[in-house]
Amino acid sequence: MLMSLSSVWILLPAVLLAGGLIGASGIGGVLLVPVLTQLGGVPLPQAIAAASLGFALPALVVLKPLRRERAMAMRCLPLLGGALAGAAAGALLVRWLPGSALMTGVTVLVLFSGWRGLRAAKSAAAPAAPLGNAALLAIGAVVGLGSALTGTGGPVLVLPLMMLLRQPIVFAVVAAQAVQLPIALASSTVHAIEGRLDLPLAAVCGVLMLAGSIAGQRAAAGLDVRQLQRFVSMLLLAVGAWFAWLLYA
After folding, report:
1. Inter-residue contact 184 to 55 (CB < 8 Å)
2. Which end of the chain is more exposed for a tag (fewer CB within 10 A), N or C?
3. What is the tens place of the pLDDT at every residue in 160-177?
């Protein structure tokens, strides 16, 4: 991990911020790969690999609420199984498929979901019926594939999809946080086998994001459901705008 001292001091607060946003809403991992490549000068394949493993530590933060909500944990299992398989496939395809086309689709999805989420928060629309296991498995596979290809961790895809399908925001946030663990394990294993994984860089990112995630989860605990949905929606709009700037600037 070779980077200048000034780059390191810029990276530390940026990675902590990413962890805080992960803990508060599930989103935040989207910042990591651009931060590593743009500020740290890390090559894109190595940045994606380090981010993939780094997401494993903040994902552990969600285990506490999942232990309290056994029914919610059981609902997440098909999603996590699909994500595990999808992430392994995505990590294998990283070297052959450019992420720009996929990121364009992600950007559109994120922006539309943020806009729709704000409208729903204002009108207090009733959530739809819970998704079945087959639907959650399919969503998990798509999320795992897309996340591994772009190094975004999973929540930035899970949250928009859940909000578009009008799933309860509390379940959407928990699922978005939990899905990081199987994606991290599957994709980082493939990256390590193919020689792209920088373990020291991944460890530093993981520890910093874990610390930020704990703080972010505590900060979000005081929000009610309507406030949480509004916060997540505004964050989705901000992330989508940033993605569009990175893609087309």
Report:
1. yes
2. C
3. 888 888 888 778 877 887
